[in-house]
Design brief:
Largest sheet: 5 strands, mixed
Number of strands: 9
Helix content: 25-40%
CATH class of the largest domain: Alpha Beta
Strand order of the largest sheet: 6-7-5-9-8
Radius of gyration: 22 Å
Oligomer: single chain
Structural class: alpha+beta
Length: 181
């Protein structure tokens, strides 16, 4: 309480919503194991993980519940948390290699956290656009592209850090005069 009568002291920073709260996150953990009916990810002990053999055993049991995991819900609702845009004049020449790199990064990320996935890859003019289910995967894709092909990556955040926009500009083409120097 403040010293003035009738005026209450409030701590406004405590009333703000959590900026990084995922709207698809499970707020209450279900009892027992749960399997995603789309991707067969298993939720147990407040953790999602992939194990195909265990998922098939759990699905055979009648006691196991099936739901859609948060990543499958985001894919269904077309709700990306990361957008990666690739801009490079030589993109078409290296597209197969870049798509393989993207698939490898996704596979590595899914082995750690099955909720980090690529939703879709589309071509927008000369650019390539990748939608991801998490902002961390979008940032990781940008870093891996810089490691593999050099270039420059920039990350911009949308309102309340819900959406990450990562833009990768490939390396500049060197002309013959620049290469001779």
């Amino acid at each position: 309480m403040s010293s003035r009568k009738g005026k209450r002291y409030t701590v406004s920073y405590k009333e703000k919503p959590r900026a990084n709260q995922d709207p698809y996150a499970m707020l209450k953990a279900p009892k027992g194991p749960v399997v995603c009916r789309s991707c067969s990810a298993i939720y147990r002990g407040k953790w999602w993980y992939l194990d195909r053999a265990e998922a098939s055993k759990l699905l055979a049991s009648r006691a196991t519940r099936t739901i859609l995991c948060p990543a499958c819900q985001k894919i269904r609702d077309d709700y990306p948390e990361g957008i990666v845009t690739l801009k490079w004049p030589n993109l078409r020449a290296h597209e197969v290699e870049i798509r393989n790199l993207i698939a490898n990064v996704e596979e590595r990320a899914m082995s750690i956290n099955p909720l980090e996935r690529i939703m879709k890859i589309t071509r927008v003019g000369e650019d390539l656009e990748i939608l991801t289910t998490s902002d961390q995967l979008a940032q990781r894709l940008g870093r891996e592209l810089v490691k593999a092909y050099k270039g420059q990556v920039t990350t911009r955040w949308a309102h309340q850090d819900v959406l990450a926009r990562v833009t990768w500009h490939g390396p500049e083409n060197k002309t013959k005069d620049q290469q001779k120097r």
